[in-house]
Structures are given as C-alpha cells and as structure tokens.
C-alpha cells in the first residue's frame, strides 16, 4: 500500500478517537501528536481554488490531500458501505459499523448517500481549523442523529454504545457494561441546563465553553496540519 493511501486511512481512526476522547474528557496533547490525514472519498473536485475559499487549507495542502484521496478511491466518491469497510480495518477488536454510520452521516452534508472529496475536506477544515463555535456546531450535528435541533438521551446513548462497541471488550482498563449509560447521565447533568430532557445547541455550546477540559481539547487541534 502506498504512503498516501496509508495516510488517508489513518485519518478515519483519528477522527473517531477525537470524538471518543472529546466525549469522555480524555483528549490530551499526546493523543494528537501524529498529523491528521485524510479519509477515503472520491471524485474530481470542481477546483482547488474554490476549496481554498471554502476551507482553511492552503492550495498545497489540498493538493496533498487530494492526491491521497484519489489514490485510495479513483471513482470519485465513497458510499457508506465502503466507508464502513475501511473504518473497520482500524478497529478489528470491535464493531465500528454503527459509529461509522453516524460519522458518514455527518460528512454526507448533501444527504445523497455518498461523500465527495469536497464534503470531507470541508468537514476536516472545520474539525481542525474552524473556530471553537464551528467545531462545537459540527460535533452537535454529529450527536443530533435525527437533525431536529436537540440531543436526546436516546441519541447520546446510541452514540456512546457505538463508541464502546467500536473500542471493543478487550480494552485496558476494561470498559464496564453500564459505562455508556453513565457517560450519558454525566453528559446531561452537565449540558441540560433547564432539565427538560434534551440538550439544545445553545446549551451544548454554552456548557462546552465553560468546561476547561473541553476547551483545551478543542485547542489542541489548532496546529495539527
């Protein structure tokens, strides 16, 4: 496998680990020392100049990302099944299919069942170089599974279960069976300001901005690539 293709695939696992550590409060400087790369998607972009305007990547960075992108998927786009297959290679100890589905949905902004290079690089730009509010909005959109503008306990439990399924049962320290539900309860105690059983985007952003650990986690990505 070429160096570019390896770099592309490493991006997938790092995005997953980012959100796992963001949710569990374990994101540290050590966890992001390696460069973020790019995932697999394909089709010829309309123009790197336009993507330069839409993202915070330089033309040279976009060229490097696209080269790896094109090597991995010459056809131009990646569908969900392919995305899941690639993702699963990095989590052989667990089942990453559900989490990969949620992540795919977040990148598939056009809701057409495929992710293009433009889709992915725009999302990547937000994650790596967006403002704190941009990043928090992107994370909220990932957790808001039915896109109705709020996060329910059921949605967050689905997310947490998918993360624990992905990490597998043989991690160290061993993950307890009730850990996903405990994380959900902690999440809502912190985020659900008016105790109405749902977390709105305003509650989410306000709570995150007041959480020093979350803010430090976000800022760790400012100079990744």
UniProtKB/TrEMBL annotation:
<dbReference type="GO" id="GO:0015459">
    <property type="term" value="F:potassium channel regulator activity"/>
</dbReference>
<keyword id="KW-0407">Ion channel</keyword>
<keyword id="KW-0106">Calcium</keyword>
<keyword id="KW-0631">Potassium channel</keyword>
<dbReference type="GO" id="GO:0005509">
    <property type="term" value="F:calcium ion binding"/>
</dbReference>
<dbReference type="GO" id="GO:0008076">
    <property type="term" value="C:voltage-gated potassium channel complex"/>
</dbReference>
<dbReference type="InterPro" id="IPR002048">
    <property type="entry name" value="EF_hand_dom"/>
</dbReference>
<keyword id="KW-0851">Voltage-gated channel</keyword>
<dbReference type="Pfam" id="PF13499">
    <property type="entry name" value="EF-hand_7"/>
</dbReference>
<keyword id="KW-0677">Repeat</keyword>
<keyword id="KW-0633">Potassium transport</keyword>
<protein>
    <submittedName>
        <fullName>Potassium voltage-gated channel interacting protein 2</fullName>
    </submittedName>
</protein>
<feature type="domain" description="EF-hand">
    <location>
        <begin position="95"/>
        <end position="130"/>
    </location>
</feature>
<keyword id="KW-1003">Cell membrane</keyword>
<feature type="domain" description="EF-hand">
    <location>
        <begin position="131"/>
        <end position="166"/>
    </location>
</feature>
<keyword id="KW-0813">Transport</keyword>
<keyword id="KW-0472">Membrane</keyword>
<comment type="similarity">
    <text>Belongs to the recoverin family.</text>
</comment>
<keyword id="KW-0406">Ion transport</keyword>
<feature type="domain" description="EF-hand">
    <location>
        <begin position="179"/>
        <end position="214"/>
    </location>
</feature>
<dbReference type="InterPro" id="IPR028846">
    <property type="entry name" value="Recoverin"/>
</dbReference>
<keyword id="KW-0479">Metal-binding</keyword>
<dbReference type="GO" id="GO:1901379">
    <property type="term" value="P:regulation of potassium ion transmembrane transport"/>
</dbReference>
<keyword id="KW-0630">Potassium</keyword>
<dbReference type="Pfam" id="PF13833">
    <property type="entry name" value="EF-hand_8"/>
</dbReference>
<dbReference type="GO" id="GO:0005267">
    <property type="term" value="F:potassium channel activity"/>
</dbReference>
<dbReference type="InterPro" id="IPR011992">
    <property type="entry name" value="EF-hand-dom_pair"/>
</dbReference>
<dbReference type="InterPro" id="IPR018247">
    <property type="entry name" value="EF_Hand_1_Ca_BS"/>
</dbReference>
